[in-house]
Amino acid sequence: MQDPNSLFSFDDNEVVIPAVVLEEVDSKKRYMDEIGRNARQVSKIIDGLRETGKLHEKIPLPNGGHLRIELNHRSFHQLQEIFVEKTNDNRILAVAKNLSLEEQTNEKGRQVILVSKDALVRVKADAIGLVAEDFLSDRVVEIDHIYSGFLELYISGDNLNRFYEKDELKLSEVTNHPFYPNQFIVMKDALGGSASAIGIVEKTKQKVKRLVFDNDHIWGIRPRNVQQTMAMELLLRTDVPLVTLIGKAGTGKTLLALAAGLLQTEDLKSYKKLLVARPIVPVGKDIGYLPGEKEEKLRPWMQPIYDNLEYLFNAKKPGELDAILAGMGSIEVEALTYIRGRSIPDQFIIIDEAQNLTKHEVKTILTRVGERSKIVLMGDPEQIDHPYLDEYNNGLTYVVEKFKEQQIAGHVRLVKGERSGLAQLAADLL
Question: Could you tell me the pTM of the whole model?
Answer without folding.
Answer: 0.78
